Amino acid sequence: MPMPVVRPDSATAPTFTVQWLPPHKVVVHDNDWNTFPEVIGVLLRAVPGLGVAAAVALTEEIHRTGAAVVFRGDLDEAETCAGVIRPIGIRVTVEPDA
Fold it and tell me: Are residues 75 and 24 in contact, defined by beta-carbon separation less than 8 angstroms?
């Protein structure tokens, strides 16, 4: 004997709201004490999937303009990335990417 199918009453069925957090960006600011090789090396360790050429280009942009966005992603990933960069003494900010 087949089991009866019970369908939830739409008036009492739970509803869910999904709220997406905004993406975030990691901004690295220039300073006068870290060398190019130090910055390139830390970017390669901190930014997932970043290649040497891109790390060199970002380092040059940081030096030339005073800052550069080195990563965009969710807040946890951005904080993790920034946490790898900060220990060498570079100012790093994590900001909503509007």
Answer: yes
